[in-house]
Write a sequence for this structure.
């Protein structure tokens, strides 16, 4: 299968997308009615909520997911209403949009609405923590060495400016147990440690850390625990009160399949007073004394995009219709199918095989020099959009069918030589 982009094929794709759109409009009402027992037919219905063509199948959720079609349409519709008439009178219809979306998202992740700030992405949420906590020279920051740059090198910059020490924890590719991981982090902590922070599911290995146990270890010592949930939110059932972390970050444009440039920063009740906001936007009145008591102070980011915020609420509703449990189970099923097939193709998994130690991020080893060639061929010859983070990274989601996963396996099988070289 070779795909080339010509004007004709773009037109054909646009027509196909329009056809998918028509089907999707009818299908959207059926998601809630259909049952998981409907099996692949149910997931075909979910797949039809997305406009991507079969020639460009997304399997790159760790980076960016397509939004549900109705979510993208909501963004377009609200943008149009705003651009048609930007008066405050017209925009007043969106005054409650942000608080409504926040309440829906908070309920879904096991948090109170005033513990959740709707920010712009995980980078911004992580940055609020890296720059907002009070530290003294000599304080120590314990991080996982697999953290994303926004929760990794960002700490080196803060440390350089304020005389802090960053301690990096490495864990085995496949840890023996949760306790081994907790022990490694605990050993890195001492009475100067002020924060323990890690990515729950790594974007560069796919390994899942035991967030609840790590949070208990940190908080038991009076240490702030921050979790980067960029690869968790939208992919798994979340109950942040149960996880017990002090703060948590996520992006709606990843596994949540929502609008672009919306994210969340959760700050556990009672923790916000200890964290300074980085951005002070207009809040209706200029305050010298900021209201510092809850997470909402992290939301004053200047002019917001009503369309994206409105679409966030729409996305949360779709997650409720499908159900976060069903989404998590389906991702696990597809990731397991993918891992088994990749192993059979002779690939070496970077990600642990055990679903309890991983999420939807699946990575195989590929020699550095071949990574781009392999990812490019996956796209151009097999119509699978993958990425090269940590090897070849494939992240199946609910819009993928089992046939998409089989196609990805077929692609890797055909490139055995490049993967092993
Ligand atoms: C673990 C992790 N944290 C943070 C980010 C940054 O996300 P965003 O670009 O949406 O801010 C990413 C992006 O891939 C990520 O994988």
């Amino acid at each position: 299968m070779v795909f080339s982009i010509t004007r004709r094929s773009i037109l054909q794709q646009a027509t196909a997308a329009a056809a998918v759109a028509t089907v999707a409009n009818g299908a959207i009402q059926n998601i809630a009615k259909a049952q998981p027992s409907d099996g692949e037919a149910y997931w075909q219905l979910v797949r039809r909520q997305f406009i991507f063509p079969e020639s460009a199948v997304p399997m790159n959720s760790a980076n960016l997911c397509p939004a549900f079609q109705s979510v993208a349409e909501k963004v377009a519709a609200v943008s149009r209403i705003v651009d048609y008439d930007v008066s405050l009178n017209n925009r007043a219809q969106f005054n409650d949009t942000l608080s409504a979306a926040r309440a829906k998202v908070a309920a879904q992740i096991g948090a109170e609405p005033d513990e959740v700030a709707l920010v712009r992405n995980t980078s911004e949420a992580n940055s609020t923590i890296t720059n907002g906590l009070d530290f003294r020279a000599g304080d120590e920051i314990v991080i996982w060495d697999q953290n994303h740059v926004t929760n990794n090198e960002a700490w080196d910059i803060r440390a350089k400016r304020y005389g802090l020490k960053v301690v990096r924890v490495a864990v085995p590719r496949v840890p023996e147990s949760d306790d081994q991981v907790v022990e490694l982090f605990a050993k890195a902590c001492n009475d100067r440690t002020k924060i323990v922070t890690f990515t729950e599911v790594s974007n560069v290995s796919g390994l899942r850390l035991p967030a609840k146990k790590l949070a208990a270890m940190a908080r038991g010592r009076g240490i702030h625990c921050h979790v980067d949930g960029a690869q968790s939110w939208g992919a798994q059932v979340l109950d942040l009160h149960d996880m017990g972390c002090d703060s948590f970050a996520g992006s709606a444009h990843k596994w949540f399949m929502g609008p672009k440039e919306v994210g969340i920063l959760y700050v556990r009740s009672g923790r916000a007073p200890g964290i300074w906001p980085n951005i002070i936007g207009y809040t209706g009145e200029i305050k010298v004394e900021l209201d510092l008591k809850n997470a909402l102070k992290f939301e004053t980011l200047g002019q917001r995009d009503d369309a994206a915020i409105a679409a966030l609420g729409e996305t949360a509703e779709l997650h409720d219709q499908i159900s976060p449990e069903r989404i998590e189970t389906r991702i696990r099923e597809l990731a397991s199918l993918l891992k088994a097939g990749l192993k059979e193709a002779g690939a070496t998994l970077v990600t642990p095989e055990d679903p309890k130690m991983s999420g939807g991020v699946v990575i195989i080893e590929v020699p550095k020099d071949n990574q781009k060639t392999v990812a490019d061929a996956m796209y151009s010859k097999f119509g699978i959009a993958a990425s090269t983070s940590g090897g070849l990274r494939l992240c199946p989601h609910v819009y993928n069918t089992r046939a998409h996963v089989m196609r990805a396996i077929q692609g890797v099988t055909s490139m055995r030589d490049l993967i092993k070289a």
Notes: The longest helix spans residues 7-33. The chain has 15 helices and eleven strands. Residues 1-28 have pLDDT under 50 and may be disordered. The CA atoms of residues 195 and 224 lie 5 Å apart.
